[in-house]
Structure prediction request, 232 residues.
Amino acid sequence: MKLSIIIPTYNEEPTIEQLMQLVESVSYPIDHEIIIVDDASTDRTLQKDILKQISRDNIKLLRNYKNKGKGVCIRQSLECVTGDIIIIQDADLEYSPKDIPGLIQPIINREAEVVYGSRFLKNKYPYGMAWINYIANRFLTSLTNFLYHTNLTDMETCYKAIKTEVIKDMELRASRFEFEPEVTARIIKRGIRIYELPISYAGRGLRQGKKIKAKDFFTAVRILLRHKFIDR
Prediction:
């Protein structure tokens, strides 16, 4: 089996080099590839040291020349993945790549098709998470559970490990951060159980480059409602 680590990036100059070092320092239980999708960064995200790493066989680079959003970057990456399992890795260091092997193990063992890394299983209030983001996360997860009769603790988590054949079979439309509720709704509606495992988390604020906005909260609500009552 093989793992595809998808890294959408946009203006991640302060963290991308450290993130790449962390990703590559992990001992994965299966072969892996890294797919970086740069969403028209205007800073030095793709500096020389990173470009040297990208020359390696297991690292691919996709570049947008117009900013399109995280959801588009993920959809683009799915066109060239060669792994049996995909996982999304944000580039801002909120999530630790050391958690990835544990998240993909149930899929490798054929015990699950989808595994989410939950920020709330280890800590009720994750370190560094702003209170407004905490409220938004808890509300959106509760709304998901209410609408879809699930028992999730962290629907909005970045760490979603999914069998490639499962996600490639979906007609995803997300452009921005609505990827999270859309892929979750589609997984649940297919009758696939979402397993959750605890992960570490170090929250970042707007000053450190966090890009999710208030409007993304309302978009997530709309997506959850639409997939429940309109898109059958």
